[in-house]
Amino acid sequence: MILLPSITLAQVPPPTPQEIVQPNTIRPLPGKLDSVPVFNSNSPELVLNEGILLSTFPPQGKTHSNAHLNYPFSSRFDVFAHHVAKAPNPDDLRTLYLGILLHNPRQTPITVKILQGATYLSQPDAPFIELPPQVEDAQGNVYAGPGSRVMGAILRRYRQDIFPPSLVIPGGESRMLINLPIPVKDLDPPLNGRSAYVRLQTNGNVYAASLAKFAPLDENGEERQPTLEEWETLLKQGELVTPRDRPPTPPETTSIIYGRVAGVSQGSRWEARLTNRGNWLTIPPQGEAVSYPLSSLTAGTLGTNQVQSAPMLVRYDDTAYEAHGNYGVQYSLTLPLYNPTLEAKTVTIALETPIKQDKLVDGLRFLVPHSPSVFFRGVVRVRYLNDNYSWQTRYFHLVQHRGQLGETLVKQTIFPQRWQLVKLDVIYPPDATPPQVLTIRSEATEN
Prior knowledge:
By secondary structure, the protein is mainly β. It folds into 2 domains: 18-33 and 269-443, no CATH class; 44-237. Helix content is 4%, strand content 42%. It contains 2 helices and 27 strands. The protein has helices spanning 146-155, 228-237, and strands spanning 18-22, 25-26, 32-33, 37-41, 46-47, 51-55, 73-86, 96-103, 110-121, 134-136, 166-169, 174-182, 191-214, 262-266, 269-273, 281-282, 289-294, 310-315, 322-323, 330-338, 345-352, 364-368, 374-385, 391-401, 410-414, 419-427, 436-443. Strands 4, 5, 6, 7, 8, 9, 11, 12, 13, 14, 18 and 19 form a 12-stranded mixed beta sheet that branches. Strands 3, 10, 15, 16, 20, 23, 24 and 26 form an 8-stranded mixed beta sheet that branches. The chain has a 5-stranded mixed beta sheet with strand order 2-17-27-21-25, with no helix packed on it. Strand 23 and strand 24 form a beta hairpin. The longest helix is centred in the middle third of the chain and has 10 residues, at 146-155. The chain is globular and about 75 Å long. Mean pLDDT is 94; it is low at 1-9.
């Protein structure tokens, strides 16, 4: 009898990831971003001090003119903000407030309609909990992180109760769109984040600003919400929040630092009908697959040479050149799947997270087992016709790691020389890392 030394689980090294190649056909995503401007406030992500995060106000009359980008919004525009508060030191547990202010520069009142809007904290609203790779989420109760929860709510066209249907802003005045805390007290570690996304429609020009301010104290020494007047004073006299994020490198640089976004990006929605034969998308041959990138970016086009990152209309010099990641952009994709063969074919559709590459050799690369780093947390909506030719709508919450193959979202059997329509929507969530791919695969028909 041979006695083997005992081995505890802690001594067993994790398996070494093996790289696998999927020789899918990779095509650029049809369509393009719309022209809706997005107030895009994500730098600095970690906010340690008071000041201006992003201002599109004119610089005239401001103490620090470099903090104001002079961009008025009109008609349709969106507001996105994603920031994290951290106690500057263990004894400083003051509550940081995030304020987003809208200003009417003309002399007559304007109305800003709030079409959809949601904002949540990491703690306690939407903690980063571990979830399975794919969970059906019919009621909107599945989320991991505030970005995941916010974008799921917007995908359902939700307007949170804290947002009124509209704001009437008198001439020459301002109103607060958001005036909410990011508390760190009683948290271990004292760290918290807030994500927000709001879709707006205005009948007059509007300037916007996102600001960070520690809670003032009332006469009893208790924290209170900052007033509109206090926010206006900070806007007029304040400077850009420091410390700043790591600045980006120019896009043509070989070793790219993308940086974080602070400015106005162009594009809130990407609509596309995926076709390769007239109005139809011919399904791939049996056992093969075709993939389309989502949120492809500079140095990460997966062989398509397609950069989907929203361009910046205005930005601060030390922030991202493009809206890398397209946080808050809704991809609305229509797949008119056509089976040209004389046999029924089964087709699956999945969202996947391959290893980021710019040029491909042999195909998309994945890891088995996948990396521990989470690269995507968010909600996907799929719609399709069932066997009774009625529309089915299903929501799935996905968690994917770097190099992770996707699970099937939709499985359809398409009869010979017939077509089947599938629609997919996803709003790209903050705290995700691009790119992902949408993969359509033909399988052998079960007998």
